[in-house]
Amino acid sequence: MACTEDSQKISPRSNELFNNQWTTYQKILNSNYMGHREIYDVLHELLVSYQKPFKMLELGCGDASFTAQALLNTFVESYKGIDLSEAALKIANSNMAPINCSKTFTEGDFSELIPQLVENQKDSFDVILISFALHHLLVEQKDYIIGQLLNLLTTNGVFILIDVVRKPEENRETYIRRYLEEVQKSWSLVTPQEYSMVENHISSNDFPETQEILYSIAKKHDFSRVECLYCDPLDMTKLLCFYR
């Protein structure tokens, strides 16, 4: 479903939930608690290095605010953003306005839409970006999605993954404990109510893999190589490039 002006309206209850979560998320981003500034500086440098027009697909794009900044002064030719939230996509449309390229925004679950894109075989992309979204899927789903993405990339295309990653010795439980300890220690502007929301989200929805597992998935699906362009000081978040 494309995001258009006559899209189905959000119910008052869902709109209130979105606004509450959105306010907390924006506070986290504005405080740079997840390191978006440093990560997207690296992404910007990578995208600027493309010296010819490129087509970009972003899965789980949210409001695309940091992506829009990363795309400034690049040769981006087209951008397609997919996200579950209609409200976020409307904001994304506004945030992407300064970027001079063709734009499409589609509402839906990217894990369900990707097979449709592959089957249609109408679109191919030079750059595919997933930022802080793949870790919500189980490892079997990640394996399937990454394998499908190879079919959507151009010959020299790259899949860029920005996401939380476990240390080799960590399981999910020890990772979540370490992450939440850091939240309590460093996210000083987050209120107890907001922390409870963050804790519930992470405990219910985060299923990060180790870098080694992600590399093995890439090898299984015949990506030519994978490299890590960024790792945060806490060894929690990485920017990985999977080259076709």
Describe the secondary structure blueprint for this structure:
Elements: H1 12-30, H2 36-48, E1 54-59, H3 65-70, E2 76-83, H4 86-95, E3 102-107, H5 110-120, E4 125-131, H6 139-150, E5 153-164, H7 172-186, H8 192-205, H9 211-220, E6 225-231, E7 237-243
Parallel strand pairs: 1-2, 1-4, 2-3, 4-5
Antiparallel strand pairs: 5-7, 6-7
Helix pairs in contact: 5-6, 6-9, 7-8
Number of strands: 7
Strand order of the largest sheet: 3-2-1-4-5-7-6
Characterize the main sheet. Answer: 7 strands, mixed
Instruction: Name the poorly predicted regions.
Output: 1-18
Q: Please bin the fraction of helical residues.
A: 40-55%
Q: How many H/I helical runs?
A: 9
Q: What class, by secondary structure content?
A: alpha/beta
Share of β-strand residues: 15-25%
Oligomer: single chain
What average pLDDT do the residues reach? 89
N- and C-termini, Cα separation: 29 Å
Shape designation: globular
- What radius of gyration results from the CA coordinates? 18 Å
Order of helices and strands: HHEHEHEHEHEHHHEE
